[in-house]
């Protein structure tokens, strides 16, 4: 979880491979209208996000039924979104928040050519983010380290 460009897809796909778990890319579950909105520089609202989170929950449950576990890259910016995901899944859910400085996130988003998410939406993502509190028991990683080092830290924490 975390704002656009924080490194969710990069770490998520590495973790999926390491855990032999299906990797679900949250971006793939947005409605076409939601992608068009973001492409046009408009931030999503709760109304855009609830059905998207529910689709992710359904897919995650199917993967859990099939393979026992799954790794999901999903912004899950607000505590209520994470509660929705937890409620949808018939298995314990662990969240890893990925974060970095605004400057580094902007640089990474700007360097990424083939993505619908404009850098102009980063500030709205940062404003919407509710960092998990103690009760959520999330791991928090800064994505300055090499992705494989982050993967190994996450695996140690998960185990
Ligand atoms: N640990 C890292 N070190 C260096 N670069 C990284 C790291 N993690 C991710 N990146 C780079 O930062 C950019 C954004 O990463 P990534 O696409 O994984 O983020 P994301 O959170 O999935 O973004 P979005 O939510 O917008 O899809 C990519 O170009 C990626 O290669
Ligand atoms: O909740 C949201 O606003 C969205 O999921 C965004 O975070 C983007 O889809 C994602 O980051 C891809 O850039």
UniProtKB/TrEMBL annotation:
User: Catalytic activity, per the record?
Assistant: D-gluconate + ATP = 6-phospho-D-gluconate + ADP + H(+)
Q: Which UniProt keywords apply?
A: ATP-binding, Kinase, Nucleotide-binding, Transferase
User: What name does this protein carry?
Assistant: Gluconokinase
User: Which PANTHER family does the annotation name?
Assistant: GLUCONOKINASE-RELATED
**Class of the enzyme per the UniProt entry, highest EC level:** transferase
Q: One Pfam family of this protein, by short name?
A: AAA_33
Q: In which pathway does it act?
A: Carbohydrate acid metabolism
State the similarity comment: Belongs to the gluconokinase GntK/GntV family.
- NCBIfam families given for it? therm_gnt_kin (TIGR01313)
Q: Which Gene3D superfamilies match?
A: P-loop containing nucleotide triphosphate hydrolases
Per the UniProt entry, the Enzyme Commission number(s) are: 2.7.1.12
Organism expressing this protein natively: Sphingobium soli
